[in-house]
């Protein structure tokens, strides 16, 4: 399913969103309650693969609010956020923006891969989710979680279930298990009703926890 342009030309939104919401409202009692709370808000892609992956690295294991703050400082460092320009940045300046030493290393390695053309950006639209994940995790600092964020937020794939995401697990715990601990098996069982729109349900679970929209 192809993405469609939102009113803001900077963003691309999935054309399956309304169909997904109808499916989830019909199949899942929690989604029936959550989805109406957020009106027309929906997942969107900025359409730039490098930026999406960089934002995922910056946001890994920190809150949406903290990630937004660090990213805003980081993206002001280069004149324009491109792989080549990131490679010109000073490590001290990147650290001063709030990035850990490890995340600086990861961003540099990401920029090196894009600058050298060793990632197959033009082929991703035609590749299966697991094939894309396998290519991305070969880049230093990109694990399965980051690759899944890329599938959701850049390629707008509809049926990604990021079980390594702590916010998803916390949200499922709150919304489905009254705050009791949740295993990956529990989460998978809940998500059976979400398929084939696990990405959309995950987005609403995130929104139930964070007032700020999740975006990369």
Please summarize what this structure is.
Helix content is 54%, strand content 3%. The protein contains twelve helices and two strands.
Could you characterize the architecture of this molecule?
One of its GO terms (molecular function) is DNA-3-methyladenine glycosylase activity. It catalyses: Hydrolysis of alkylated DNA, releasing 3-methyladenine, 3-methylguanine, 7-methylguanine and 7-methyladenine. Residues 58-210 form the HhH-GPD domain. This protein has helices spanning 17-27, 29-34, 49-59, 64-75, 83-87, 91-96, 101-116, 129-136, 144-153, 166-176, 184-191, 198-209, and strands spanning 3-5, 12-14. It has 216 residues and is mainly α. It folds into two domains: 3-44 and 160-209, Orthogonal Bundle (Endonuclease Iii, domain 2); 49-147, Endonuclease III, domain 1. Strands 1-2 form a two-stranded antiparallel sheet. Helix 3 runs antiparallel to helix 7, helix 3 packs across helix 9 (144-153) and helix 10 packs across helix 12 (198-209). The longest helix is centred in the middle third of the chain and has 16 residues, at 101-116. The protein is globular and about 50 Å long. The two termini are 20 Å apart. Residues 1-9 have low confidence and may be disordered.
């Amino acid at each position: 399913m192809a993405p469609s342009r939102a009113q803001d030309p900077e963003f691309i939104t999935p054309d399956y969103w309304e169909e997904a919401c109808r499916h989830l409202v019909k199949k899942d009692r929690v989604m029936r309650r959550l989805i109406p709370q957020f009106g027309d808000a929906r997942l969107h892609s900025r359409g730039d693969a490098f930026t999406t992956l960089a934002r995922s690295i910056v946001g890994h294991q920190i809150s949406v609010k903290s990630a937004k703050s660090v990213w805003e400082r980081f993206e002001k460092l280069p004149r324009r956020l491109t792989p080549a320009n990131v490679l010109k940045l000073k490590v001290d300046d990147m650290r001063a923006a709030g990035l850990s030493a490890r995340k600086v290393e990861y961003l540099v390695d990401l920029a090196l891969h894009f600058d050298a053309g060793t990632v197959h950006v033009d082929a991703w639209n035609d590749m299966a989710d697991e094939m894309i994940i396998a290519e991305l995790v070969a880049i230093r600092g990109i694990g399965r979680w980051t690759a899944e964020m890329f599938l959701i937020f850049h390629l707008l794939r509809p049926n990604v279930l990021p079980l390594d995401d702590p916010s998803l697990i916390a949200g499922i715990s709150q919304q489905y298990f009254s705050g009791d601990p949740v295993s990956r098996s529990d989460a998978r069982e809940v998500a059976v009703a979400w398929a084939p729109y696990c990405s959309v349900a995950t987005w609403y679970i995130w929104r139930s926890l964070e007032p700020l929209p999740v975006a990369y």
